[in-house]
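Aim 2, interim progress. The first record below pairs a target sequence with its structure tokens.
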Amino acid sequence: MKSDTHANFYKVTISKYNEPATMSVRCQCPYNLGDICRHEAAALFQLQEMLDRNQFDAFDTQYDQQHTLIKMKSIDLKTIKLLTSNHILSEADRILRKTQAVIKSAKDEKVEAELRADGKKYPLILQRNEERNFDTHCTCDEHEHPLCVHKTALFLQLLTAHGPFYFDTLRNWDKEKTNSSPLTAIPLATIWKASLPSPTSTANPSCAYSTPLLKKWRP
């Protein structure tokens, strides 16, 4: 990891990352004021990012399709391919050639749908969270990949029909304005008056109504 204060790098070693109870993290930096340094923390975040993107084929990760977090900001085909397999993509394409997911609801950056495949109905939810990533839901038993064939099919259907930024069109701006902190309007005259010292509060009349910035400019 590159140091954020010096032009050098520190080697971070993460051992047994697939066994949380026995996992160990070591860094070459001299930090000794706590259990973990900033380089170790950054390395763990990067490792989690790589695991979420399914970049470790040898790592036996089990996914629960009831809720999987998909880290992509829009419907991106390259990211979808990383989070699935060639077989899942082929199956999703086969399903979409025969049928389409029925969209039950599409609002507030959330799509609820139902997909019929192989004689079964699968309820699906794709929803953007506060970090602009996707929380996804399906009832199938796919455990090897973050995206099952049914979620993949729905993402591909929305991408084809509406484009990669479809969820931006479902954004509820009125709701976000309501949830944001209201700003109290203060008259400009009040701000200007409050920023100036009283002319009687200084012993030097020539400095009356002068701000620190204006004082620098005095001839």
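The second target in this work package is listed in the same format:
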Amino acid sequence: MLDAPLAAIGVSAALTGFPLVLPMLAGASLAIHTWGVVDPRSSFYLPVWWRLPAGERHMALTFDDGPHPDVTPRVLDRLAAAGQRATFFVIGENARRHPALVRRISAEGHALGLHSFSHSRFFCTWLPAKVTADIVRGAEVLADLTGRPAPTLFRPPVGLKNPLVAMAVRRLDLRTVTWSCRGRDTTLPPLPVMLQRLRAGLGPRAIMLLHDGHEPDRPADRQRCLAALDDLLPRMHALGLVSRPLIRTADGIALEA
């Protein structure tokens, strides 16, 4: 990456009478890596798809952290009533606990994506072998429940990426999908602020993120996801926007035909 060249420049500058250059470059390196880890649009460590291909006229609704026994059925009801389909990046442990919901998601024409088995908050600190094993375990749960091949679209827990996660993703030949817009519906900003963020991101090529569930054994209120859908779905209809499931293509991702 950039660390070795930056270090070489810093050491050279320090030895030639410019000692402040080394800490400045160290700070620059930290900023670059922070961007690579946190920014959903960053492909610094691995290829990331955060919006749909150029020319796409429609969009993708995506949901993380489900399925949830109360919220997910109500999300599915709303999508069905509006004639919209989505992609659900599910936690493997939640899928194991709620198999009927996973089957319903699949049967109603939505796509399933991988979001790890555990959604551990330490996921991005694990060695690649453990990251790989966790993703594979979640994939096996979905394949067993649906009777279909395991998904190959992956969204990292909390959206964080680093070289350890990148090694596992490459080993498993997955497509990493992030988002172009989210309402931060898990952090409880005022509802009008959340809705304004989502409305601003509504449009062709958008990949929108909402949360219909929560980490296993860490209960959280996800009713705001339903409030967001109640606002977004009529707006999508008025704008002629259609959400369809995400699929993998030879060179990236696209909407299902």
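The first strand starts at residue 48 and ends at 49. This observation will shape the mutagenesis plan for the next reporting period.
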